[in-house]
Specification:
The chain is of the alpha+beta class and about 300 residues long. It has twelve helices and six strands. A six-stranded mixed beta sheet has the order 2-1-6-5-4-3. Strand 4 and strand 5 form a beta hairpin. The two termini are about 25 Å apart.
Length: about 300
């Protein structure tokens, strides 16, 4: 029984309805595999073009079928991206996404898309990353993963075990409460805005590492900056030069990036970058500053992510 609305049995309309229903999930799958929203969108476009040619009457589980198609396209894109990353200027960071509080409250989702975790996933091979993401983040069964990556279920189990062990050895040691991360970010912001070296050192862990990504378009450190003293000098020195030499107004606005507290950095009102943090205990252990303008196209609005 329907509500009086016209019901279409056009195959393209039905395909569109199914695709739209699962779009946020498919985007999240592709993004976790690629670390690039722009490439994830391209993967979804390629998936859509293939999906509308499928005979839906032959598809038992549309969600599983779409995830499988998306995975195959993402694997192809990962291999092409590998060449781009090898030629990339400076440090490479994932494309940051402004996310809603709902993502931050979903602890598992927030951890899996955090900048720190996305960088760990970069150390996996394309197939290992696809298997890990599908199994650990989306709980896809081994037979479905095998069909998506073109391996036997037994091989997929071995790959999943190897990838899990690899990630566990490198992933952040603990997940702190949102309130703790917020407090650390606020202390960091106040220290930066007031130019307070000691305040900055108080919130930075001794082994903190700063990674900055300018992509060859904006100034950034070509290598990670390690240690609280060096990171504090780098951050305060760069901002002080911008303020005093060019009289630029710098604004640091708290936001949520990839499910975690972060700062949106504006210079004279224009977005300069996104600074995400990683917190352990009560201190910042990782700083990820994305300045590459090609990676900042989505910071004007929230990007919906989904596990469903």
């Amino acid at each position: 029984m329907n509500d009086g609305s016209p019901v279409s049995d056009d195959p393209t309309d039905l395909a569109t309805e199914a695709f739209v229903a699962h779009r946020n999930l498919l985007f999240t799958v592709a993004y976790e595999m690629l670390g690039s929203a722009a490439d994830a969108e391209d993967v979804l476009q390629e998936t859509w073009l293939r999906w509308i040619t499928v005979d839906l009457e032959q598809v038992g589980d549309q969600r599983a079928y779409l995830v499988r198609m998306t995975t195959r396209q993402a694997l192809n894109r990962m291999r092409a991206m590998k060449r781009r990353k090898e030629a990339y200027v400076g440090q490479w960071l994932p494309e940051p996404l402004i996310t809603s509080p709902d993502v931050a409250e979903h602890v598992e989702l927030a951890e899996s898309v955090s900048m720190a975790m996305m960088l760990v996933l970069e150390t996996l091979s394309p197939t290992e990353r696809a298997v890990f993401v599908l199994r650990e983040a989306f709980d896809v069964d081994y037979d479905e993963i095998a069909a998506a990556v073109g391996k036997s279920p037994a091989a997929v189990r071995q790959i999943a075990h190897r990838a899990r062990r690899h990630v566990d050895a490198r992933r952040p040691r603990q997940t702190v409460a949102r309130s703790v991360a917020d407090a650390a970010l606020e202390s960091f912001r106040r220290a930066i805005e007031s130019g307070d070296p000691q305040g900055l050192l108080d919130v930075l862990a001794p082994h903190v590492v700063l990674v900055s990504d300018g992509g060859g378009f904006k100034q950034a450190s070509p290598r990670p900056v390690a240690g609280a003293d060096k990171v504090a000098r780098f951050m305060l020195g760069g901002l002080n030069r911008a303020r005093t030499r060019t009289m630029i107004r710098i604004d640091l606005t708290p936001t949520l990036v990839n499910g975690s507290p972060a700062l949106l950095v504006r210079m004279d009102g224009e977005v300069d970058g996104v600074l995400a943090i990683e917190v352990e205990d009560t201190r910042i252990t990782g700083l990820y500053y994305v300045r590459n303008p090609e990676k900042l196209s989505r910071v004007g609005s929230e990007t919906p992510l989904s596990r469903g």
